Amino acid sequence: MTDPQLVLTERVQQALGSAFGPEHATEDPLIRPSQFADYQANVALSLAKRLRRAPREVAQTIADHLDTADLSVEVSGPGFLNLTLRDGWIAEQAARRLLDERIGVPQPAPQTVIVDYSAPNAAKEMHVGHLRTTIVGDTLARTHEHLGNQVIRQNHLGDWGTQFGMLIEHLLDIGEEAALGMLAAGDGNAFYQAARHKFDNDPEFQQRSRRRVPLLQGGDPETLRLWREFIEYSNRYFRKVYRTLGVTLTDDDIAGESMYNPMLPDVCDELERTGVAEISEGALCVFPPGFKGRDDQPLPLIVRKSDGGYGYATTDLAAIRYRVRDLKADRILYVVGATQSLHFQMVFAAARTAGWLHDDVKAEHVQIGSVLGSDGKMFKTRSGESIKLTDLLDEAVVRAEAVIADRGYDAEARRQIARQVGMGAVKYADLSVSHDSEYVFDFDRMLALTGNTGPYLQYATARIRSIFRNGAVEPESVTGPITLGHPAERALALQLLGFGSVVAAVAQLSEPHRLCNYLFDLAQTFTSFYESCPVLKAEEESVRESRLALSALTLRVLLRGLDLLGIEVPERM
Q1: Arithmetic mean of pLDDT, 298-319
Q2: Signal peptide location in the record (predicted)?
């Protein structure tokens, strides 16, 4: 089972080697979908300058050496190669996909991939800013697992630091039961703000809070007990959010800042002992090469402050060392806001200087853009506060229920479908734009049943299921064969063959929007097929069986693709 674009890439590379020598057999043929053929290879235009020959002449030479079994080739324009696959080859490959459990998704040599995502702060509520890191990270984790990689999810909670002295003292002031009840209910922001207000305005409270910090860091049993209560009740709230969103994070994936705290002295000692870090103005610093401040002086990455304390950089370096040495990572994905770009560049550079990151391990910052309101500014409440993620998700379900209210479902079915549609709409709207881009949060657009939205894809999938219900046929029982007589059948079959390479590209490039775009194009292609080609009422039995096979394959691809995006699909809509 082969992807058309990969087949054509190999064929054109073989022709390049035969025509111009083996040194050209690894050239990128620059193959792209074309409106004039199935695909177009543009390599002749870039190669002609180096060969000092006319592009059209180079293209014709490639065409003359091309293996045209199962395809036809035409030279057009200034030197484009128009490539058209034969119908029989497309039909055969589509039929094979129908019998393939993986639907053409490759299984490369497995790697250990660590995905660091979500990372809310303990004792605080999750807000809309956590939505993207959670959703994008979960899709990447799902995708890598489907490709056969060993995925280690890491939820890097903000669960340690000097702020816990303040929080523990406030808990003691208002009482454990009241404080923990607020955390479990998701009112962490109110609790934190009250503690912060007292810290800023009550000198006695501030002194108590400061005295509490060394007790926590020193392992005082009662202080640790209270801290653990904070973490447990925060985690109850996080679990509720993750269940609502349908993401795969569990308690086993928590690897918060506190986990690395015992490692920090050794990390600093190793950096200083090996000469990677040096004392500068009383602080222990790494000066990664190539980073300079406004004064054109080397920019320091502080790993131990002049007062002996540690910062985020120390924890992140400890995490890299642990993930490479202990977890044996081949690749580490940090799904974190774009504003942290410089921080991660410096941390990665420092880790490479220390030898913790080497050529066999790839660390990547998957930069996450901001969510904006309709005014083009950061998405906040009218009072200027961050919007609670739970409020946002609840509103999505309420609005989704209004969208499907007139469809005749009983109350229980309506609630279930509304939850699936609401969550699907929010997640798809996020995933369908490039992760490093900003996007405007707009319920009306994301819940629309038309256009590039989650509900549109859910509806398209439900409609295919209705075909099989109406025909009293189980999709799993359909085996083909597939024949292509109508252009819409051919277009659909060709589109279906691209699924595997798209999934591989999502993992390779960390770009879930590629899968969204593919699924939307597939749903549109199926709609054209459905409107042009009767399925159950096809005039001939062989044509009916072929169209049922194309429908079954489309259903499988849509369901698998949406599952990789973490989107549930209602049986009916």
Answers
A1: 93
A2: none
Per-residue burial over 209-244, b if 16 or more Cβ lie within 10 Å, else e, is: beebbebbbeeeeebeebbebbbebbbebbeebbeb
Instruction: Quick: pLDDT tens for 353-402.
Output: 999 999 999 999 999 999 988 878 877 765 566 788 998 999 999 999 99
Lookup: tokens for 5: 């674009």
Give 239-287 pLDDT, tens digit per residue: 999 999 999 999 999 999 999 999 999 999 999 999 999 999 999 999 9
**pTM for this predicted structure:** 0.93
pLDDT score at 2: 75
Distance CA 266, CA 69 (A): 62
Instruction: Single out the residue of 440, 408, 444, 412 nearest to residue 425, CA to CA.
Output: 444
What does the block give as tokens for 72? 């036809």
Whether residue 160 contacts residue 224, with contact meaning beta carbons closer than 8 Å, is answered with no
In whole angstroms, what is the distance from residue 523 CA to residue 462 CA? 11
Cross-strand pairs, 378: 372
Q: Are 320 and 357 in contact (CB under 8 A)?
A: yes
Neighbours of 171 (CB within 10 A): 24
* Cis preceding linkage at 481, omega within 30: yes
Q: Which amino acid, one-letter code, is at 399?
A: R
What 8-state DSSP symbol labels residue 121? B
Residue 349 to residues 205, 286, 291, 362, Cα–Cα distance (Å):
41, 10, 10, 12
Say what the pLDDT of residue 448 is: 94
Q: Partners of 386 in the beta sheet?
A: 380
Q: What is the pLDDT of residues 476-497, one digit of tens each?
A: 999 989 999 999 999 999 999 9
Q: Classify residue 84 as exposed, middle or buried by CB count within 10 Å of its CB (0-12, 13-18, 19+).
A: middle
- The Cα 483–Cα 495 span in angstroms is 15
What is the DSSP annotation of 59-95? HHHHHHHS--TTEEEEEETTTEEEEEE-HHHHHHHHH
Q: Which of 556, 503, 567 is nearest to 526 (CA)?
A: 556
> Is the Cβ–Cβ distance between 12 and 43 less than 8 Å?
yes
Query: Residue 238: which residues within 8 A CB-CB, separation 6 or more?
Result: 120, 126, 249
CA 148, CA 64: separation in Å to the nearest integer? 40
Distance CA 133, CA 297 (A): 33
Bridge partners, 71 (sequence order): 85
What would the 3-class secondary structure string for 358-426 be? CCCCEEEEEEECCEECCCCCECECCCCCECEHHHHHHHHHHHHHHHCHHHCCCHHHHHHHHHHHHHHHH
Distance CA 162, CA 209 (A): 9
Output the pLDDT for position 48: 94
